[in-house]
């Protein structure tokens, strides 16, 4: 089985929950995808890291995402990248600034100002987490160059990101996930 097809199968069997649920955006949906069920699984982490790494801009020197959803994705990409001879620093973006010390939003290796960073997330609904991640990276002096995710729920996030000047590059869409 092709790697992309296998990752989609893992999302369908391990992460997809059908039924009425309230999303973090406040919207009510008839399905939920808990991508952590896949990206914290050894095979799922590997496949996610590998497939997203293939899409990362060659000029990017780091990959970053909002905690907690993006943490395992960022780590998977960094590890798979290293194994393939492409070292990308891993950056984790806090929801709130650190309450002591430097008070930073972004954790990870300190990179030169203007460093190009790929921003990742697990599931995109409204795009709010990605936009917040972009803003926080800019605030730390980094240059977000692209936005990637595992799944686009096709509920306005892509359009909101495009209005902010970023195109969304996803492995899968709602249509892919729910097609049988």
From TrEMBL:
This is Orotate phosphoribosyltransferase. Its cofactor is Mg(2+). Homodimer. PANTHER family: OROTATE PHOSPHORIBOSYLTRANSFERASE, URIDINE 5'-MONOPHOSPHATE SYNTHASE. The gene is pyrE. HAMAP family: PyrE (MF_01208). One of its GO terms (molecular function) is magnesium ion binding. One of its GO terms (biological process) is 'de novo' UMP biosynthetic process. SUPFAM superfamilies: PRTase-like (SSF53271). It comes from Methanothrix harundinacea (strain 6Ac).
């Amino acid at each position: 089985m092709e790697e992309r097809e296998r990752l989609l199968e893992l999302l369908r069997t391990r992460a997809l929950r059908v039924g009425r649920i309230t999303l973090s955006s406040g919207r009510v949906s008839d399905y939920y995808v808990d991508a952590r069920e896949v990206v914290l699984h050894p095979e799922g982490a590997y496949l996610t890291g590998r497939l997203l790494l293939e899409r990362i801009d060659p000029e990017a020197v780091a990959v970053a995402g909002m905690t907690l959803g993006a943490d395992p994705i960022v780590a998977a990409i960094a590890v798979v990248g290293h194994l393939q001879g492409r070292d990308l620093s891993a950056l984790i973006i806090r929801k709130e600034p650190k309450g002591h010390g430097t008070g930073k939003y972004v954790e990870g290796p300190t990179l030169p100002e203007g460093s190009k960073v790929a921003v990742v997330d697990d599931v995109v609904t409204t795009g709010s987490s990605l936009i917040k991640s972009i803003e926080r990276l800019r605030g730390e002096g980094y240059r977000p160059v692209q936005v990637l995710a595992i799944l686009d729920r096709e509920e306005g996030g892509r359009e909101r990101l495009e209005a902010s000047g970023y195109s969304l590059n996803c492995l899968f869409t709602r249509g892919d996930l729910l097609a049988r």
